[in-house]
Each structure stands twice: as C-alpha cells, then as structure tokens.
Amino acid sequence: MRVYRQLLLLAFTSSVIFTGSASEIVQSKGHFEDKFRQLEESLPTANDYRNAAGEPGKDYWQQQVDYKINVTLDETKRRIEGEQVITYHNNSPYKLKYLWLQLEQNRFKSDSIAERSSTFNGVDGSVSATNSYGDNAFAKISLQDLRRQQFLADNSLGYQITAVTDANKKPLKYTIVGAQMRIDLPKPLPHNQSTKLNINYSYNILEEDAVGARSGYEHFPDDEREGGNDIFLLAQWFPRVASYSDYEAWHNKEFLGSGEFTLEFGNYDVSMTVPSDHIVTATGVLQNSKNVLSATQLKRLEKAKTAEKPVFIVSADEALANESSTAKGTKTWHFKADNVRDFAWASSRKFIWDAQGYQQKDSQNPHVMAMSFYPKEGGELWQRYSTASVIHTLKVYSRFTFDYPYPAAISVNGPVGGMEYPMISFNGPRTIWHDDESRTYTLSEKQFLIGVVIHEVGHNYFPMIVNSDERQWTWMDEGINSFLDGIATREWDPDLPWGREPSDVTEYMKSNVQVPIMTQSDSVLQLGPNAYIKPAVALNILREVVLGRELFDFAFQEYSRRWMNKRPTPSDFFRTMEEASGVDLDWFFRGWFYTTDHVDISLDRIYKLRLDTNNPDIDFERRRQDYQAKPMPYSVERNQQSGQKTWVELNSDNLDYHDQHDQFSVTNKERNKYNKKHAELDPWEQQVLARALKEDKNYYVFNFTNLGGLVMPILLELTFENGNTESLVLPAEIWRRSPSQVSKLIVTDKDNILVSAVIDRRGETADVDIENNYYPRQIIPSRIEAFKEEERKGNQYRDIMHDNKEALKEPEMKVKKK
User: Which of 248, 374, 371, 397 minimizes the C-alpha distance to 310?
Assistant: First the structure.
C-alpha cells in the first residue's frame, strides 16, 4: 500500500514539472566535461615560499640588485657609453656559481634569435595570424619593412662589452649567449652575501621610427621649422641582471620582442652626461638640481608642488629658443631611485616641461610630483591633458590598490607610442601642424593621449610595484592594468569608447586564431585581444557580474597589497581572489584563462506549464478552453462561411448522448476515481494541493544550451503581460552537472504572465551571439551596418578644432614659431 501511495503522490506532483513537452536532458557517457574541476589540480603546489591562500609564504625571498651608473649620450653619433657597478645581493637559500644578465640591445643584431625567428609579414618579430596566400595572391612588403631592413643593415647594433671585472678590477670570465650574458663568479655566492662587479659598455642608439623598438631616438627634419633636433628615449639601455626566483631559478629566456621584462628590485644611482642645452627626466629624484636648472626653473618647480594646475618649468617659448641653441659643452644630471625594478630616462633640447604636485593621505609619501615633458609638437593637447591624466591615474588606481609610493610620476612625449618604466612613461600622440602655424588635434588624438597616459602611468602599479613576470605572463600586467585603466577612463568620460567592455572581445573570442590567456608571451597569436582586452573584460565581468563590487574590490586590494614590491605568479592571483572573496572561482579562472571557450548561451525554448489537479471537473474544463482557443481549420471555417450544414445540425431530433455532450464532459466514473485517490492523500498533502490550486501560479520551464563551452551565470530579464520586467541571475553553478544543456523551472504569480525573456540584455557577459538570447526570437540590427553608421556619422576622427579654427584664435590655442 505504501508503494502505491508514493506512485499516486508522484502522479499529482510530477505534473507540475512534466506536463507539456519540455525536453529531457541526457548526458552521454564519455562526453562529460567537468567545468567546475578544481583549479588546484593544475596550479603549482603551495609551499613555504607561496602559501595556499595566495600570500607570500613564511620563507618568501627575492633578490636585490643595486646599480651605480655613469653614462654619456653622444648626440652626434647617437651613441651611449656607460660604466656601471652592480651590487648583487643573494637572498635566496642557494649558492650561486654565476650570474645571468639580459642584453636586450642584442636583440636587434642580425644573428639574434629574435631576428632569425621572425616570420614574413611580421615587423619586429611579430606574426600575422590571419595572413594567407591563395593561387592568385602575391606577397607584399611595405616601405616601413624596407626602412627597417635598411636601418639594421646600415648600422652596427647591439652591445659592445669592453670590460667585465670584479670589485678589485680583476677580469671576470663571461659568455655572451644571444641577448644574454653569463658571468662566472670566482667562487659561489652564498646565501645572504653580496658581490660587486663592473661592466663597461657602449651601443648605437636605435632610430625608433625606423626599427619599431621600445626606445630610441627620433630625428626631426633639418628645416627652419624643426631645426634638426632629436628626442632620446632611453630604456633597456644598460646590461641588467636577470631575475632569479623560487619558481624558475634564473629567468634566462631572452627578449624576443613581445614578452616584456621581469626584473629585480634595487637602488639606482645614475649620472647622465648630455649636451648642456638638453633637459633630462628620469626614474627617481634629481639630486643636483642647482647645477642643471636655472634659478627661475627652481622657483617654478617649488611653486608647482602646491599648484592647483600644471606650472611650466620650461615654457613653450623657452623650449623653442632651446631648439636653435648654439650652446656647447655638457651637463651631468644625477638621479637616484630606491626600491625600483628598472630605470629609464629621456633627453632633448626640445622639451617643454610642466609639473603639478599631487597630495595623497599616505603619511609615508604624502607628496607626488606629476610631470610632463613634450616638444612643441605636443602643443595644447599635452598642455591640457598629460599631467591632468597622470594625476587622475594616481587617484583612481590608488583607490583600488595602495597609495602611490614613488616621489614622481612622469609622462614623456617621443617616438614610442606607449611604454612604461618606474615613475616614467613614454607616450606618442601629438597635435597637427597647419600652414597658418596653428596646431590642432582630433578627438581621436585627445582620446589616445588620455588613454595611453592612464595606461602607461598605471603600469607603475602593475608590474613596477606588483612585480609580475611579464616575460612569461603578459596578462598579469597588461590585462590587470587594462582592467584598471578601463575603470579610470570611464571615470574620465564614459561617453567615449575606451574599448574595455564585454562587447569589445566577442569577435576575438569566437575566432579561430586564439590561444589561452595562460600562453607564454612570445607565443600569443594576437597580443592585444589576448593579453590586454580579454583578461580586462574577464576581470570586469568578475567584478560586475560574478562577485559584485564589494567582494571583488576587497579581494583585489588584498592581492595588490600582499604582493606590493614582491613577485606574484598567476596562482598567487587566483588563490588570493578566491580566498579573500570567499567564493569558489575555479570554474571562472579555468574557463577564461586556460581555454579558448567563449560565451554563447542560447535560450532555446520556454514551456508554460499548469498544475493538473486530476479533478475532472476542473481539468476537463481547462482542456475544453484550450481546445476552443485553437484556430479553426480552414476547411471547417470555409464550410461555415458557405452556409453548409453538418449532419448533426441537420438531424437534431435524432441525437444520442455523445452528440449532446462533447469530449470534455465529465462522467461519475471519473469523479469517483478522483475522489478515491484524493482520499488516500495525507492531510498535509491535501493542504498543499488545495493551496496550489487556489494560487494557480504560472510554471515556466526554460531550456538553455551552452553553445560556446564557457560556463557563465545566466542573466535573465523577464517581461510580463502587464508591462513589468524582472531581472533574475542564475549562478554559473547551474551548469555543474550538465555543462551543455540545462532546464530551469521559474514560477510566477497568477497575474504575472510571461510574454518574453532575454539573456544578458545589457551585454555584460561577452556573449558572442545575441540572436539566440531572445525568446521569442527578435530581429537584431546588423552589426556591420552599425559599424558603417558609426564610421560615416561619428566625429571621433574629425579634426574638430581645425574645422572650427576661426573660433580658435585665442593665443593659448596656438604655438607660434619664432
């Protein structure tokens, strides 16, 4: 009897779920993929150097390398000559028999791995992942490619190492291996000991515009307007000791072009001898300002510390006069920087220099000098926005991480489009010169300058302070920084397209030229989408959709502060974000960072169900109403329209019971059967059923398919017959047992009759196909047409200032030549 009653109860209750034609999901044997498999199975085992919480362990260590450098810039020969003393501190628990150094300038030698492994149709060692040649196709080489080849052929490039000695000037044995150098120590260097060595070197500076490097010189035309001057941006300019870490030992993978730099922290003492009329800026703090700056410049610099807007230290007129200078001799600029991982500098007689102090609450570093250096070609664009962008960056980034720990943050204009170093960045946008001697800029150039300054200054936080390994994992600095610069640029002006939204990555995520984000930097097919945009979008989704701002911001700040001035790995980031947020994120990091799956969730169909009561007096009447609501067959409708009578109508005096009652008429036999079943229910079961019948709620079964493979929360927006809408978030865990297809029962009140539903209406999850997000389906505007419309009517690329130059004749809007 008990078994029978269970079956009877199932008959009553199962109708809630299975009435209708909702499809049953079947998981085929051998096809199951656990999207929620724990990431710990793939991450390195936690240890005393890096613990399971993602923190530096109790025995965490890192090396320190200090540099004292004297360098001379020969402007005529465009050559660097330097001598440096390196003090290497071995904080590791191991004895070191030798030191490895990076010689990045050797990358441009014809026999380097970078040059020999570069592929056709790729400049600077890059690969074109979309290039193909058909039967009728022909190969092409650009003039820029030819220019690069000619410069490399005409110039002797790479380091000339003239001496490597110990502290007593005794020669040390060394071996150069491509863009690296191994220096053999006279005896192993023990734990907690240091050693000194001296290196004398020189090299010819690259022409940045010709070669496409991350540093070099830019030569301006030898005419009356430009004067034939140069801007020198110096980076990767001295032999640097390679990193030695707990997870890789020596980081002796040489520079191939894409994978940037992983370095040790240290203290720098650098003296730069340059032509006497040059202005120099660099990582660190100027030590001999009274020797290289005029009394007027010193007063202006002091005034700038508390100014409410940038103050000119070197004005546009003064810079213009310097360009035609006939000064002879040299000056030596002396800078010091403590606890930084690199050192870069810039030098030119063309520089305008403005500065403004930024005050922050950190008592250890309350005052930061935000400064910009740019030629007249930067014009009003730089005057208005460079230093302002620097300060905006510090305000936003510090809110998410920590107070800025350095004394200066510098933006320099030159031939490098955008590159970062501690305290100093190189940024490229400029104004447009017109024949009437005015300078204007487009909205595109304005947006470019603001965006690139925020991005490159933001790199001070990642990776200059949170010192990730760029050579191995580009996304740890570029992706995290792009996520933060997206926040900063939205806070600058949300109406401009900054390119950090989920929709900006959908085309890439469904393409066939992807590699996982966790791919070594030099092997990435499309560096921009893979290392910048995709991880930035992933973190934005993690913040706005998965965790929410409060949990994300707490965990992200915890990661930033844990690894400030230390070297984190991806596992440290993943573990910290999960441990500090208190949310299982293995599915998220595995899907976004370790696979090339994309987001494409389809809302296939929605079934509306109604509770069958098994009471024939109720259910049969419902079925009659459903039957009557169906469209009349055409043949019956046309028979009626033509006046044709049916047999029943013609024989109304000879009808039996069945002719007088339709198929939905209830008999006593059916009533008795129902009453018997109902009486067998327990009292609580009768109460539950009675309430359900009284409430008469709507039961909807949603069928979803995961077409892209990347599991994500399902963001539903429901629209009802009364015009109301409701948002509902189904967490990613809905896919845990069936990652390809799931069904979800959603119950609404009697008056809330569903008319439509859409997944991710606001485009928050990077879903690559919005057409299958709607039920019922809708007409979707063509993305191609939308793009053409923006190109045709948008003003982003118009030179608005030039179009309206009659209204721009105020003196401050122009830079006059003299």
Answer: 371
* Mean pLDDT score, 243-247: 97
In single-letter form, the type of residue at position 483 comes to: F
**d(C-alpha 755, C-alpha 427), whole Å:** 53
Q: Where are the alpha helices (DSSP H) in 614-744?
A: 616-629, 634-641, 647-650, 657-660, 668-679, 683-695
Helix/strand/coil (H/E/C) assignment for every residue in 126-154: CCCCCCCCCCCCCCCCCHHHHHHHHHHHH
CB atoms within 10 A of CB 151: 16
**Under a CB-based contact definition with an 8 Å cutoff, are residues 96 and 90 in contact?**
yes
Residue 232: pLDDT over 90: yes
> How many CA atoms, within 13 angstroms, populate the side-chain half-sphere of residue 306?
3
Q: What is the pLDDT of residues 141-152, one digit of tens each?
A: 889 889 999 999
Q: Is the CA virtual torsion 501, 503, 507, 510 positive or negative? A: positive
Number of H helices, E strands in the chain: 24, 32
Q: Reply yes or no on whether the pLDDT at 809 is more than 70.
A: no
Looking at 18-32, 655-669, 717-731, 787-801, which range is the least confident one? 787-801
- Sign of CA pseudo-dihedral 469, 470, 474, 475: positive
DSSP one-letter code for 487: H
What pLDDT score was predicted for residue 228? 86
Query: Which segments within 30-95 are labelled E, that is strand?
Result: 64-74, 79-90
Report the pLDDT value the prediction gives residue 543, as an integer from 0 to 100.
98
Distance CA 143, CA 288 (A): 45
The Cα–Cα gap between 409 and 341 comes to 15
Mean pLDDT over 257-286 rounds to 96
What is the maximum span of the chain, computed from C-alpha positions, in angstroms?
A: 129
Contact 329, 273 (CB under 8 A): no
- Find all residues with CB under 8 Å of 483, minimum gap 6, and list them: 500, 535, 536, 539, 540
pTM of the predicted model over 0.85: yes
Residue 663: both structure tokens together:
């198929």
**Confidence class for position 783, pLDDT limits 50, 70, 90:** low
In tens, the pLDDT along 344-380 reads 999 999 999 999 999 998 778 999 999 999 999 999 9
Q: Which residues, including other chains, have CB under 8 Å from residue 487's CB and lie 6 or more apart? A: 396, 400
The tokens for 215 are 């540093």
DSSP string, 350-381: S-EEEEEEEE-S-TTS-EEEEEEEE-TTTHHH
